[in-house]
Amino acid sequence: MASTTVNVVRYTALLGGVFYGIVHRRSLQKAHDAEVKHHAIHEREHLIEEAKAAFKRKQESGKDGVVTDPEDPRFDLEKLIAKWEAESQ
């Protein structure tokens, strides 16, 4: 049989470990939540910048009717070359 002192030390170590685990888990969760929030904010900023750039391209292309973005399905190389020739003269 274990003495009373040994049992006190065992249960103290057990409760200390449980308490440490709870505190450690909370600190890890807090750091993870901060990282998720940081990522969400930067992702939102990135999407806003992309939307602004797309809107700017749309506004610029609407002025003369020539689509200058080669990724756009309405892109026409002949119209773009004709536009450049007209601007150079």
From TrEMBL:
One term of GO molecular function: proton transmembrane transporter activity
Keywords, comma-separated and alphabetical: ATP synthesis, CF(0), Hydrogen ion transport, Ion transport, Membrane, Mitochondrion, Mitochondrion inner membrane, Transport
Main location: mitochondrion
Xref: Pfam families: ATP-synt_E
Subunit structure: F-type ATPases have 2 components, CF(1) - the catalytic core - and CF(0) - the membrane proton channel. CF(1) and CF(0) have multiple subunits.
Family from the record: Belongs to the ATPase e subunit family.
Name of the molecule in the record: ATP synthase F(0) complex subunit e, mitochondrial
Lineage, opening ranks: Eukaryota, Fungi, Dikarya, Basidiomycota, Agaricomycotina
